[in-house]
Amino acid sequence: MAYTIDTLGETETNIELLKVLVENSFDSILITDATTEGEVIYANNAFKKLTGYEPSEVIGKTPRILQGVGTDEKVIDRLTAALKSGTEFEGKAINYKKDGTPFIMFWRVLPIKVDNKIEAWVAIQRESSFI
């Protein structure tokens, strides 16, 4: 039998399975609330490896702490438009680690919807060797 995320259901075991997947992903996973500011409500351990920030350091802040002088405003404008329209986003930009080191980040941002209402956003991020 083939399984999809929908066949997992909402049992406690399946919720724990999803937690294990998120916590052990090689990719950074950042979840923000659905407010205009988009405050971080969750960051996995891979986020620390990618950025140098402890998850506890970014909770309540916005992902903009990763942006700096080299961050392409056109990419951020595309992201902002996607968030306003409730659609998925994919892009690459120069971001900055906690120590100020620039890096190229490739990321995908997806809405988390419940009953067609966006409750949060999940960003899956990784470092890219090219732009």
Automatic annotation (TrEMBL):
It holds the Pfam family PAS_9. Residues 14-62 form the PAS domain. Gene3D superfamilies: PAS domain. InterPro entries: PAS, PAS-like_dom_sf. SMART domains: PAS. It comes from the Bacteria. Keywords: Chromophore, Flavoprotein, FMN. This is Putative PAS/PAC sensor protein. It comes from Psychromonas ingrahamii (strain DSM 17664 / CCUG 51855 / 37). The lineage of its organism: Bacteria, Pseudomonadati, Pseudomonadota, Gammaproteobacteria, Alteromonadales.
